[in-house]
Amino acid sequence: MLIFMIRNGQSFEIGNQVKIKIIGIRGNQVRVAVDAPKSISVHRKVIADRIRAENGGVIPSKEVE
After folding, report:
1. Which of 1, 34, 36, 53 has its CA 20 to 30 A from that of 15?
2. Residues 4, 61, 1, CA angle at the centre, nearest 5°?
């Protein structure tokens, strides 16, 4: 796991396709913008866990036209 500090307004990239930007910090909440291709599913962990539980442990891949 990579851990680093980032300031409001800064961004980082995951590979060549996913960009993450911190767009706001208020108390203990952080607003995050995720720019990713439609073919990549992006979910909060609690939602991803629910989807996996409903689909036999996997998140279905997206169909992209």
Report:
1. 53
2. 20
Q: What is the pTM of this model?
A: 0.73
DSSP 9-62: T-EEEETTTEEEEEEEEETTEEEEEEE--TTS----HHHHHHHHHHTTT-PPPP
pLDDT at 56: 84
Over its C-alpha atoms, the chain yields an Rg (Å, rounded) of 14
Q: CA 18 to CA 39: how far, in whole Å?
A: 11
- Rounded to whole angstroms, how far apart are CA atoms 46 and 33? 18
